[in-house]
Design brief:
By secondary structure, this protein is α/β, with parallel strands linked by helices. The chain is built from 16 helices and 13 strands. Helix 2 (about 35-50) crosses helix 16 (about 410-440), helix 3 (about 100-110) runs antiparallel to helix 4 (about 115-130) and helix 12 crosses helix 15 (about 390-410).
Length: about 450
């Protein structure tokens, strides 16, 4: 719908009306769908909101999101200090544009992560210049100081899960006092996010597990939180019998070699599994770390020929890779939702997953829609993988049940509708507050 048509609409002045398209600013400080779940969220949610008839504009920073046709991107460029191939770079003098750039570099130089704060400041400046152009502003887990106060439209904020969970897992894995100090400094931005979260009027999250973590870790009042499950693009992620199943293939997704993702435990499980099933091998969708716990485990167990990393592949190639596997595995110690689980289940590929965080909400009941194991238990993981590789009928049954579960509960169309419903509620509450303030001034 054009801007002229929206202005001519009988509900142009009242976006609370259910049949009136909304003008939505969707903010994301990082949006690459190939390096984490936030980028996947932005891409699919924006597309489905647009399909509902809303006008969606994404405001993002590097790495920029990949968006579908019909969803425009406004680039709020950072200095891209963590880009490949020169992360933690020092910009040249002529790259600096303003004090926000200087703050970004200074925070990096002192070991911190500046992007949530600096993106929020750039977003505030941009939104101030475009005041009145949006009905609702939706922030995707920036939680920066710049997004507090009057932005010109009601704010809804998605928190996938508190980053304080990642911080604690990284601290637990740190092996020296110096490393622990470095972790604390890097995660310094979580203090800001906690302060901001407590002041937000409306928080959207993706699972009941994340809801409880947000209450406990961030101190957000439970009555301000709404759970809207996300899911899979079930048109793309679907079974295809023409894709050949490769014996022994296990596939997993790991955006980084960090304790949270549990990849090192899956490598250890693979080493145990191959003593009985030597054709078992692992394909990891993600970047190979040249050093770190995973690389060391692969070398220690002599698995160089049994673990393959792939990255930069197309959506269709990724789907076919999952279809070709006999098992998809989610070994994470914690997830706020687990898109890889939902997507694999949608293809009919049977799932082995841990019970970390919200994963059971997605994967379902052990023995019915998946095989579930405790997080961090390589022995249990190896046993479940071995059981499933050796039982074709169990693979068929779990695969079919898993797809049905996703179709019933976890689709992007349902996620977009639930999100739009929350926008309307937020607009109604915002309007009521405004009317109350005006009546007080009149009296």
């Amino acid at each position: 719908m054009t801007a002229e048509a929206i202005e001519a609409s009988p509900h142009a002045g009242d976006p609370v009306q259910g049949d009136r398209p909304l003008r939505i600013a969707l903010l994301t400080y990082k949006g690459n769908p190939f390096c984490g779940g936030q980028g996947v969220y932005i891409r699919h949610l924006s597309r489905e909101l647009a399909r509902l008839g809303h006008s969606v504009e994404v405001l993002g920073s590097q790495p920029y999101p990949v968006l579908d046709e019909g969803v425009p991107l406004t680039e709020l460029a950072s200095l891209d200090l963590y880009r490949s191939p020169d992360p933690f770079r020092t910009p040249k003098r002529d790259e600096y544009r303003d004090w926000i750039d200087a703050l970004e570099v200074a925070t990096m130089w002192t070991g911190g992560f500046p992007e949530p704060l600096t993106f929020s400041l750039r977003a505030r400046r941009h939104l101030a210049a475009r005041r009145g152009e949006f009905d609702v502003i939706h922030d995707n887990q920036t939680l920066g100081y710049g997004l507090l106060g009057d932005l010109g439209a009601p704010l809804v904020t998605t928190i996938h899960h508190p980053i304080t969970v990642d911080r604690q897992l990284d601290l637990d894995a740190a092996t020296s006092r110096r490393k622990r100090a470095s972790v604390r400094r890097w995660y310094g931005f979580t203090r800001m996010q906690k302060r901001v979260a407590r002041r937000l009027p409306s928080v959207l999250t993706v699972s009941g597990s994340s809801e409880q973590e947000i209450v406990e870790h961030l101190g957000v009042r439970q009555d301000r939180i709404r759970v809207v499950h996300i899911g899979a693009d079930t048109g793309l992620w679907s079974p295809d019998p023409s894709v050949a199943e490769i014996p022994g293939r296990i596939v997993t997704t790991s955006s980084a070699d960090v304790p949270l993702k549990g990849l090192v435990h899956l490598v250890e499980a693979l080493a145990k599994l191959r003593t009985e099933q030597p054709d078992a091998h692992l394909v990891v969708v993600g970047k190979r770390a040249e050093d770190g716990p995973v690389a060391q485990a692969i070398e220690r167990y002599g698995l160089q020929g049994a673990v393959e990393f792939v990255k930069g592949i197309s959506d269709q190639e990724l789907v076919d890779l999952v279809r070709s596997a006999q098992i998809s595995c989610v070994p994470s110690l914690y997830e706020g939702f687990s898109l890889p689980a939902a997507e694999a289940m949608a293809t009919g590929t049977p799932l082995v997953a841990t019970t970390g965080g919200a994963i059971p909400e997605v994967a379902g009941t052990d023995g019915e829609t998946c095989l579930a194991v405790p997080p961090g238990d390589a022995g249990a993981l190896a046993a479940a993988l071995g059981r499933l590789l050796g039982d074709p009928e169990l693979r068929r049954r779990l695969g079919a049940a898993g797809r049905n579960r996703v179709l019933d509960r976890f689709t992007w169309a349902k996620a977009a509708q639930g999100t739009a419903d929350l926008y309307r509620e937020r607009l109604a509450a915002h309007g009521a507050v405004g009317r109350g303030a005006r009546s007080v001034r009149v009296r």
